[in-house]
Amino acid sequence: MPDARFAIETGRPNRNMTRGAACPRRCGRLPVVMRIASCVLPAALLLAGLQPAFAQPSVPPHLEKRGAATQLIVDGKPFLILGGELHNSSSSSLEYMKPIWPRLAAMGLNTVVTPLSWELIEPREGAYDFTLVDGLLAQARAAHEHVVFLWLASWKNGMSSYAPVWVKRDTQRFPRVVEHGNEVEILSPMGAATQEADSRAFAALMQHIGQVDGAQHTVLMMQIENEVGVLGDSRDRSAAANQAFAGEVPGALTAYLQAHHHTLDPELRALWDEHGDQTAGTWAEVFGDTERADEIFMAWHYARFIQAVTARGKAAYNIPMYVNTWLMGEDTPPGEYPSGCPEPRVIDIWRAAGQAIDFYAPDLYASNFEEWCKRYHRDGNPLFMPEARGGALGAANVFYALGQEAGFGFSPFGIEDEDVKGPLSASYSVLSSLMPLLIDRQSADAVHGFVLDPSHPMVDFVMNGYRLHVTLDEIFGRRSERGFGLIMATGPDEFIGVGKGFRVTFAPRQAGSPQVGIAAVDEGWFENGKWMPVRRLNGDEDDQGKAWEFDTLILEEKDQGNAWYSDNLPARVEKVTLYRFE
């Protein structure tokens, strides 16, 4: 989570109902008999071993595999996070946040991602102050927003600036990383007392959240630490770290590598294979005497520390918890990015260290957006993006993340800086209207998302028995500079699409099959899950029945009905039905 990397865009609120009142009726206004029935009957049911519907145990938010997708379940239903992350210090003041909440709601967010720092939660050792937590929850509920809290404790962006001062000043009890012979402001993951203090504070926080929010589910998830790793060197070179590096690689790690050899990240598997797939030896012997071994060593120790913190928190209140990643650049050596952070090539090391962490998430500002999404959406790791670019780029990328990679959330950074009526807000608005259908199509593996530009002008995929060819929109020789959207199969010969700047043509899946024609194209929207058609598009608007043109607002420049266009206008929702003919 950078201090001021990028401004951001929006999302959309979702009403969060309170529940769990012992007697929700205003009994004093009812006749005596009804008053007795309304208050005594629940007690009688409980005495009989039964529970009335309104007193059912509240199940916290959790992840659940549903069909082809892993989804976030909130109050019994799948939930897509259309979110935004605040700047680092915005939520440290309730007064400062007051004017921000209405802006966030106006942008269309349904979830706000925001820090909670250890130094404010435990300013003195053993003395916890949850005033800020309670205030943020009250403000979020008033704005009809959910929350994902970031636990900024031992590490944030590789450094340790959010730890309490009583931790910072005691370098004997809470040892620091040593780089090039000097201690730096990075708490060493080798410090047992640091792990215990961090774990204890996090467990206290989660116990409090469970007590004040366990029935309301304002808090959906927790991020543990932020972009951890050693900055400035490839590994910690303190005396304790050097001794551990010269010692044996833990058997639990090599046993995991053996058991999961065929599913390991290709880079990690190749490195281990290159050194003989050894199951015993020092870190340099097993992984080579290189910076890659240093990175793996740090990944193991950060993972052991953070898995322990996470486990303590989950024991107090069990909701999804994840770790985010400062992504490495091409050929960037560890230390120039936080060495040990859960990059794709060391996620297996993190998994070997424990199972408390639910998933690993990319902070994705890189230009090769699709590649990074694919690298994190693998082997049971669902895609959630706690940090990303906003603006027009975020407005396009969210369709790929939620569509193609079945992501359950997207959250640009610095959200309070975004234009309330900006492009991401428009994307969130249309996605919000599609949410129930999109969630259903994710689980059925019946949705494709895409982002197109001149360097990547087309994409092809098979869906619903048809071959779809999606390209940048081109009218009279003028091609769109960018196109994005998603397409969902909703019936045997029916598709729903949303986006702009592209066109789609259809062909039979197998050569020699009957040809494909367009029966109808309708522009519309969804209201409470129901399709509301606005107008029928035909003639020039569907290329005389030959294609789906997603350009319903410009009626004069068409390609005679051979495609579905969507130009540089606000994203639109359309439905197409097809037919076969010889």
How would you describe the overall organization of this protein?
This protein has 582 residues and is α/β, with parallel strands linked by helices. Helix content is 30%, strand content 26%. The strands form 6 sheets. The chain has a 9-stranded parallel sheet with strand order 12-14-4-5-6-9-10-11-13. Strands 15-20-21-26-23-24 form a 6-stranded antiparallel sheet. Helix 7 packs parallel to helix 12. The chain is globular, with a radius of gyration of 26 Å. Mean pLDDT is 87; it is low at 1-55 and 552-568.
List keywords for this structure.
582 residues; TIM Barrel; Chondroitinase Ac, Chain A, domain 3; 3 domains; six-stranded antiparallel sheet; 26% strand; globular
With strands numbered from the N-terminus, the spatial order across the biggest sheet is 12-14-4-5-6-9-10-11-13
- Determine Rg (CA atoms, Å): 26 Å
Assess the beta-strand content as a share of residues.
25-35%
**CATH class of the largest domain, please?**
Alpha Beta
CATH fold group of the largest domain? TIM Barrel
What is the CA–CA distance across the termini?
Answer: 57 Å
SSE topology sketch:
Elements: H1 32-47, E1 62-66, E2 69-74, E3 77-79, E4 81-85, H2 94-97, H3 100-107, E5 111-117, H4 118-121, H5 131-142, E6 146-156, H6 165-168, E7 176-179, E8 182-187, H7 192-213, E9 219-226, H8 239-246, H9 251-259, H10 266-274, H11 283-287, H12 291-316, E10 321-326, H13 347-352, E11 359-364, H14 369-376, E12 384-385, E13 387-388, H15 391-404, E14 409-410, H16 423-443, E15 447-452, E16 458-463, E17 466-472, E18 474-475, E19 478-479, E20 483-491, E21 494-500, E22 502-508, E23 515-527, E24 530-537, E25 548-549, E26 572-581
Parallel strand pairs: 4-5, 4-14, 5-6, 6-9, 9-10, 10-11, 11-13, 12-14
Antiparallel strand pairs: 1-2, 2-3, 7-8, 15-20, 16-17, 17-22, 18-19, 20-21, 21-26, 22-25, 23-24, 23-26
Helix pairs in contact: 7-12, 15-16
